[in-house]
Amino acid sequence: IRPSRFLAQKEVGERNPNAADHCNKDPEICNLYGGGGNNSTVTCCNNKCIDVSNDDKNCGACKNKCKFSQTCCRGQCVYLAYDKRHCGQCSNPCVLGELCVYGLCNYA
């Protein structure tokens, strides 16, 4: 017997990513998804809970859109091809003295 989809219960903390959070009415709802506390980077943007530390359309703050070919890393828009702190991917620093070229540290 197949269980009813209407009676199925979700695990605690699991949510439908397409569902509206309606955080404009209750901003505290975003704390549930971001772990809460002062270090939480999840905030209410356009009535949705968004992690502003890695969202290219809301980088660091709501409606702060990264430029073409930029990526949001730790709340800053960066060029992964040339940033020594985020070379090729977020949080991938080059060794002191090396340059980041085409997303590779010390490209020769």
UniProtKB/TrEMBL annotation:
<dbReference type="Pfam" id="PF04885">
    <property type="entry name" value="Stig1"/>
</dbReference>
<protein>
    <submittedName>
        <fullName>Stigma-specific STIG1-like protein 1</fullName>
    </submittedName>
</protein>
<comment type="similarity">
    <text>Belongs to the STIG1 family.</text>
</comment>
<dbReference type="InterPro" id="IPR006969">
    <property type="entry name" value="Stig-like"/>
</dbReference>
<keyword id="KW-0732">Signal</keyword>
